[in-house]
Amino acid sequence: MHARFYHPEEITVGQMIALSAENKHHAARVLRLRDGDLVTLFNGHGGEFCARIDSIRKDSITVLVGSYQDTNRESPLHIELAQAICVNEKMDWIIQKSVELGVSSIQPVSTARSIVHLSDERSGKRLQHWQKIVISACEQCGRNQVPQIYPLITLPEWLSRKKMHRTTQDILIMLSTTAAQSLKDLPEPAADAKVALVIGPEGGFTEEEELAIEHSGFAPMHLGSRILRTESAALAAIAAMQALWGDY
């Protein structure tokens, strides 16, 4: 696979495109690409473009767009991950790897036991940082559609939104060490159904939060007899769902 770069604008065959400053640095300084090397461009709307580096200069890199390939690497399973916000390195890891595993969207939520608390300004900057991680993960894993990551909201706010926008076919899952059922006990989702997965923080959900999540229609599920850290739980659950119902 050629080096991949996200270009969030319209791309057409025969077009000459100047790479962004960030992509320019990565192409020249990290990947050590040269004139004539082939690269892949995508804009997040599906499909990808084969391009060739036309020129590398000190202040710019231009590429000539060649052919278009209608390549789809999306999972047939639509997964929304609601992840309780955790410390920076863990949150970055969860976002990166969940994109690689095929999630459709990510909703960070704040909970009673969340260690991290962000002001509006810091929350905005953190969202920009997370969006860069999502794009970088898509560049790495070959996805041509960029999953949406939403601004941080509270758990009650998210549950309220889910009540308003869910359908009867959707599958709502909360991981719980005390649950009686596992994922394999659930029926396979319908083709147009969505799966919502909510994961607690380092200290877990409070009893009140678990009750509120269950009252919102979420089914408690376990992933075996071992207790997983928050950064392991989401990824293990997504991988299991992909193996059961997705593209693994």
Blueprint of the fold:
Layout (H helix, E strand, L loop, with lengths): L2 E4 L9 E3 L2 H10 L7 E5 L5 E9 L4 E9 L8 E7 L3 H14 L3 E6 L9 H22 L6 E2 L3 E2 H11 L5 E5 L18 E6 L7 H9 L3 E3 L8 H16 L3
Parallel strand pairs: 1-3, 6-7, 6-11, 7-8, 7-9, 10-11, 10-12
Antiparallel strand pairs: 2-5, 3-4, 4-5
Helix content: 25-40%
SS content category: alpha/beta
Number of domains: 2
Globular, elongated, flat, extended or rod-shaped: what is the shape?
elongated
Could you describe the 3D structure shown?
The chain is of the alpha/beta class. The protein has two domains: 3-69, Beta Barrel (Ribosomal Protein L25, Chain P), CATH 2.40.240.20; 78-245, Alpha/beta knot (3-Layer(aba) Sandwich), CATH 3.40.1280.10. 33% of the residues lie in helices and 25% in strands. It contains six helices and twelve strands. Strands 6, 7, 8, 9, 10, 11 and 12 form a seven-stranded parallel beta sheet that branches. The protein has a five-stranded mixed beta sheet with strand order 1-3-4-5-2. Helix 2 (88-101) packs parallel to helix 3. The model has no long low-confidence stretch (mean pLDDT 92).
Brief summary of the model shown:
With about 250 residues, this protein is α/β, with parallel strands linked by helices.
Q: Which key phrases capture this entry?
A:
248 residues; alpha/beta; Ribosomal Protein L25, Chain P; Alpha/beta knot
